[in-house]
Write a structure and sequence with these properties.
This protein is α+β, with helices and mostly antiparallel strands. It has helices spanning 6-34, 42-47, 58-75, 90-109, 112-128, 175-182, 193-211, 221-230, 232-235, 331-357, 366-373, 400-418, 437-473, 481-492, 518-530, 537-552, 555-561, 571-584, 597-617, 624-644, 651-680, 682-687, 694-784; strands at 81-85, 130-134, 144-145, 151-152, 166-173, 243-252, 259-266, 293-296, 310-314, 361-362, 388-389, 505-509.
Amino acid sequence: MNFETASVMEQVVWGMKLADYPRAQNRARINGLFNGNPPYTEDEEKANNIAINVNSLEGTKLAHDARNQFSNAFTKPGNFFTCRTDMGPQHKRSERGAIVTRNINRIMKRSLAYYECQRSKFAMNVLHGIGPSGWDNCQIWCPDPIGIEDVLVPSNTLLTMKNLPFFAIFRSYTAEELYRKTHGALVDPGWQMPVVEEALKWADDQARTLMGSTWPQVWSPEKMEERIKQDSGLFASDAVPTIDAWDVYYWNDDKKESGWRRKMILDANGQPGVGGAAATMSGNNIIGKGNQFLYDGKAKVYGSKIGEVLHFQFADLSAVAPFRYHSVRSLGFLLYAVCHLQNRLRCKFNEAVFEGLMMYMRVKSLDEAERALKIELISRGIIDETVQFVPPQERWQVNEALAQMGLAENTRIISENSSSYVQNQDFGGNPSTEKTKFQVQAELNATTALISAALLQAYTYQTFEYNEIFRRFCIPDSRDPDVRDFQKQCLKAGVPLKMLVAEAWDQEPERVMGAGNKTNELNIAQTLMSWRSLYDPESQRLVLRQATLAVTDDPALTNSLVPENPNKISDAAHDAQLASGTLLMGLPVGMKTGINHIDYVEALLVTMATIVKKVESKGGMATEDELVGLKNIGQHIGQHIQIIAQDKEEAQRVRQYADDLGNLMNMVKAYEQRLEEAKQKAAEQQGGAQGMDPKDQAKLQAQVVSAKIKAKASEDSHAQKTAQRQVSWQADEKRKEEQHQLEIQRGTQLHQAEIAAVDVSTAADITRENTRLKETKVAPKKKAE
């Protein structure tokens, strides 16, 4: 979509303005009623001879109560919203979130302009259900409130703005304001300077006409600018008419970059006729021309989404879906009729009261009327017998019960329809009957549910405004001093520059207990306090803090009485304190992942520095056990510093930790050297200790005692080892002797077996030999024979 000519844009704006005229009339009636205007117009008052025409201010009170509940819900907490991130190291996210939340809310809470913007939106939400706000500058963070009548939106536009093709915002500039926007450094090139100069000349002519022709340079355009600069107070006053324009934004996706583009036209001063039906556009603006742009942004994109230009806060009570912009039904719209009727009824009721207080006299002639008017009845008087008072039973009587019932019924209707916005102070029932705690609790719960449902919508829409405000606070090189201060404080506190981007953060509105209803808030606080002992210690403090805020309504006082984080130690620091005892005993401690290594290292450095200070207080001499523990804890700290060094953003912190650890380890090395020297010179120093200073002598004696203890321990250890070796040797010798005896036994048995074998063999040989000899002797004898 695009607008090539200003005349087309003028026709579109005029069409939206014409369609909005009947709605504007309804809004005017609502504004008048809730502003306290009387229910009857002057013409009605004269035509009907109405004696009493006053506003009972029931609607006004309801509007103030509803605004007060909105204000409590959004501005009472210490912060507007909380910032959370999932970017960066996990152990740093909570700390950085707290830094960003604190700095941005500090600026927003101190801004009077933003406070008034919020008040205006709450008021428009109550009366009309729509609270517009927007920015006419791409960098200023604080939005400006915009009247609902100054925003023109096409019909059938959904609340999501999904089908919104364009919209127009009414801008009213004084000559001084327009001059500042179009002159000086860093002026937006979109301003069409010929049209701007003609508009300024028109304002100058109007001022000259109103103030008289006292300027000698009437026909000198260059002098006109000097007058505007010199007499800026005059040109910004009510004496000079404003330069009115329509600021039109339209969605365009024809170019490479899609987004909302901007053009401005001067108001054509069209005046609608009766009811708007016979209205026509004049075609000429204040400079007597048409078809001219006051501002033409051309292809420049002013926002990728509507929330970067305009924001709507809705409090819609419409029952028909899908919900549309021009179908929003507000509390003011729904209560207008019954509040207006109640005002008229009260006027009639009071007229009847006054009529009932009057004294009526019956007369027959004008003479009797004159005599009746002369009767003085202040304290006492004489009544002429011709004057007769009309007794009450003969006069017209007002049906008092019916009148009271009508007033009560209207009050009930108003109360029921406003219960989701204001505190319900009368829960119905018989006032003479005392309710039980359960009944009161049930009624409060019902009211709380209604209030929560009504404000949930407002909280949701407010989140989108917070998102845009945060995005503007992250604009680099912003011209807004508040934005520069925010970024400076965040960087100074340790938030890296690359995290100051809107995409890295989520904003969550802080919600007050009871949804802004004081009665419900106190009831919830009382219940939580009765359960307080059942919660964990940290939760108990949070309950006490919330209860204190509910009672005092003062975030600063609450923070003083119940600080948010009173000397709270982190889990990592607590783990370091537990691990330090084990480390100082010389025992190993495993590396734990997923902790805040910064807090862990800082806690261990503090522990190590405390031990070193303790050694220094003893004269700078450490025991062997202290040296072993200090070396162990120093090595453990070094391992965690290496983990921190993996984050390049912590280079400066790592250097600082390394320097601190190096200084402490140098002290440990000095203690170790002194102890070694003390051991070597213990004997010599012991001989010459008689003439030494008592302090030095005591120190020397301590060193000698320590050396003796260590020597004795070494000697005992050596003796123990020697005894162990002796026992082992004796056992080995015994084993060898037993083995030797066993071998001897085995040899003897073998030798005996061998001898026996030889004996048997010898005996066999002898037997054989004897047998042979015997046979030899027998053989010759036979031969001889």
